[in-house]
Amino acid sequence: MNPQRFLRLVSGAMAALGISAAAIVALNLRGEDPLPSAETLKPTPALVAQGEYLTRVGNCMACHTVQGGAPFAGGRGIETPFGVVYSSNLTPDKATGLGAWTSAEFWRAMHNGRGKDGRLLYPAFPYTSYTHVTRADSDAIFAYLQSLPPVAQANKAHALRFPYSTQAALGVWRALFFTPADAAQPAPPAPQALATAQVPDYQRGAYLVNGLGHCAACHTPRNSLGAEQQGQALAGGLIPVQNWLAPALTDAGQAGVQRWPQADVVALLKTGVAPQASVIGPMAEVVFRSTQYLSDADARAMAVYLQALPEHAATPAKQAVAPASVMERGAKVYEAQCAQCHGAQGQGAKDEAGQPAFPPLAGNRAVVLADPTNLVRVVLQGGYLPATAGNPRPHGMPPFQHLLGDEDVAAVATFVRNSWGNQAAGVGTIEVYRARERRSP
After folding, report:
1. What distance in Å separates the CA atoms of residue 398 and residue 56, rounded to the nearest whole number?
2. Closest Cα partner for 330 from 404, 409, 272, 277?
3. Crossing angle, helix 135-146 and helix 45-57, to 10 degrees?
């Protein structure tokens, strides 16, 4: 979005809502409590161990570690539609990290999205989800981070365009789209259909999915100002800039698991593979760095919550009959490049232990998504499952972007979307071009 349009939208929204400059200040102080003057947290080995576990659940290392750099020392650039936000140093270095912070200041960052000096933080740090994290869990995470070796690495200045780089613009954004959670709020009510014995799991799962897990950060569509769309929680969307599709967790035709056996949901979270699906792209990194370390109890709790999500099936995409010439071309590409692993009938293959090695394409919901972005990205860039304790030697798919042109990729994608009982709209060369160049529609 260009800055002029942003300013017009903000001005219009403020006028429509009757928000004044004073109101913006008041709205951004919601949920604020005076910070204690001294540290009160007393770390113990048990608290540090708990914090290490919770840090993995929150996948903090993924954003706060540069490839090849010191863990948690920050500096990784997070691309957004408004510029690049650089992650901060979380090690206990006093000059450049969290060494001079208190647990109360850390809690304020998690819960209210404010830095040590009170400045507003950018929501690339997902405090819109972390605001649901309890003070006790925040303290445990802080205790763990304080136990790390200090790394002297100065934080990089964000590279955001004007006016997105200003605290004023961020203040307006927060006034419009962010409300800190009530720290004393009760656990979310469980659906009436849920068995009484599953209610605690449901509530724990809701806490993990909506809080530390920050699943909504990818699986919820965003508006033009980068905020999660109200009423569309976990309904899927294109991940900004990365341009991978995070499919809907509320739609059994996309990534919903409401109809799966619970054990298969747990397996997908902890190993990256299940009889019905496997993870690739950004989700593979989530499993590799985070969810494979879930305790059995927490993995089960997340499964209970995800399976209890109300189903909201998307409107079926228009079906188009693929031209015979495209199907013929796609069949030739498939036979030459794909059939050896995925099977002549798209049936996939298993390894010697009977575990899924190459996923079936016939009946694969990821293949027939209305938006073919992920399928095209996998053909171009390859598909790699995460190496996990439960699947330590995963098979992978090589990239074909150096071997196949846009017409061949479009043809083979169209072929697999319309063979062996699959039925979906064909893929055009423009869609391949966008995926190749990582451009959004």
Report:
1. 29
2. 409
3. 100
Amino acid present at 234: L
* Tokens coding 231: 């009423």
Residue 116 region, left (φ>0) first, then alpha (ψ -120 to 50), else beta? alpha
Q: Is the pTM of this model over 0.85?
A: yes
Contacts of 361 (CB under 8 A, 6+ apart): 342, 346, 348, 367, 416, 419, 420, 422
Closest CA to 241 of 432, 431, 436, 81: 81
Contacts 24+ apart (CB under 8 A), 432-436: 432/376, 432/380, 432/406, 433/406, 434/243, 434/373, 435/243, 435/373, 435/376, 435/377, 435/380, 436/380, 436/401, 436/406
In tens digits, the chain (441 residues) has pLDDT values of: 555 565 555 555 555 555 555 555 555 555 566 787 678 899 999 999 999 999 999 999 999 999 999 999 999 999 999 999 999 999 999 999 999 999 999 999 999 999 999 999 999 999 999 999 999 999 999 999 999 999 999 999 999 999 999 999 999 999 999 999 987 777 788 898 899 989 999 999 999 999 999 999 999 999 999 999 989 999 999 998 888 999 999 999 999 999 999 999 999 999 999 988 999 999 999 999 999 999 999 999 999 999 999 998 765 665 668 899 999 999 999 999 999 999 999 999 887 777 778 899 999 999 999 999 999 999 999 999 999 999 998 988 999 999 999 999 999 999 999 999 999 999 999 999 998 887 766
The token pair that represents 84 in the structure block: 């690049």
